[in-house]
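Marked as duplicate of an earlier ticket. Keeping the data here for the record.
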Amino acid sequence: MVNDSDEGGAGRAARSKRADARRNKETLLDAAAAVFVTSGVDAPVRAIAAEAGVGLGTIYRHFPTRADLIIAVYRHQVDACAEAGPALLATSATPYAALGRWIHLFVDFLVTKHGLATALQSEDAGFDTLHAYFLDRLVPVCTQLLEAAAASGEIRSDLEAYELMRGVGNLCIGAESDPRYDARRLVDLLVAGLRRPH
């Protein structure tokens, strides 16, 4: 006969184990993203393992191929950017301030994904859905921020989220390879241009 308290303890232990596994995977993804920023997506897996403080086997258990790892890092970064939008709206002084801070995170994602874009254009079928995932996750967040800033009267209301994100993306092209080009400064000018004239 199984004691109810034993079942409760087993359930808590299983949930705790799942939470630990999720945290470990997120630590790996954060470590991989940091290494990709400094060394590109072709960085040795041992460098990622060292950054994460784990063995090579742990990485290969979670991500059997480099493509699996790149896809997971990309999705993880998109998710972080998407989740930041509502949090910034809740904690920023104004919706326009939240929009500006979110655009900075978006720029960081675009500028620091060294080699991801090239890797994502490879023939691996796993990459096919990532652009759609990027749009599905981020366009609604940007829309929410734009609508909140427009409703507060801070910015003009005739701009689509996709249009703004595309403009920001175009300003970021090549920024990582040209130290004389400051994409963030130009993006700041673009965001300043959204303000409703007084």
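See parent ticket for discussion. The mean pLDDT is 85.
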